[in-house]
Amino acid sequence: MSGTTRQGGSPASGKAAESGSGGSTSSAAGRERARVLPGPAGRRLTVLSGPSGVGKSTVVAELRRAHPEVWLSVSVTTRKPRPGETHGVEYFFADDEEFDRLVASGELLEWAEFAGNRYGTPRGPVLEKLAAGVPAVLEIDLQGARQVRATMPEALLVFLAPPTWEELEKRLRGRGTEPEDVIERRLAAGRVEMAAEREFDLTLVNTSVQDVCHRLIALMADAPEASRPGRSPS
Ligand code: 5GP
Description:
Residues 1-50 are annotated as: Disordered. The chain is of the alpha/beta class. It has a single domain (17-222), classed as Rossmann fold. It is built from eight helices and eleven strands. The chain has helices spanning 29-34, 56-66, 96-104, 123-131, 142-151, 165-174, 180-195, 209-221, and strands at residues 5-7, 18-19, 45-49, 71-72, 75-77, 91-93, 108-114, 117-122, 136-139, 156-161, 202-205. It has a seven-stranded mixed beta sheet with strand order 2-1-11-10-3-9-4, with helices on both faces. The structure holds guanosine-5'-monophosphate.
């Protein structure tokens, strides 16, 4: 089954999201997988956002596995590591003091507080990769995506949506990594994120991790303007 694509429109434009323009992605999968990402079109920054529990980390891990040519930013967070998480791989884990220092010195491209912890994208590595022509992906929350849109309007903003709200709740509870009060905070944040879907250039529905990865790779390889028809000037 393919992931569904919806092209976005900004809320200001009043344009409704259209369904199904992504069509079947699996037939194009081999071609997209084989594609290298050279040249100016591949230099774009891609932001992957969406509610907690939707599967962004799984998508990013699959992207890292299948497409090592794509660079994924490693964020800094004040959240404590979950079992299995390694400093410098999933995140750079920092204390509040260190995070304050990074904010004060302007070393973060964007940062946000999410469900009681702070998260931020180190600026230097992103700019270096983009300058070197390496396609770069940020996996960040809505507040961060809005900051990136404001400072780097050429970035492609992709919203990862769950097939249904019930499915999102099930995934968030099912992973068993957070206590109930944290799950509630994440679900509350998730409702806000879902309401902001139309601020993104397009939506990918996470029905299949592989399909979402194929679509992301195809989007990164596309000419920037070809993949963002619904975007209105901001
Ligand atoms: P988690 O604690 O589940 O790893 O992440 C919680 C939320 O923080 C997720 O929505 C994730 O996308 C977001 N996040 C991770 N890194 C960053 C970052 O650098 N900046 C922002 N704004 N959000 C981030």
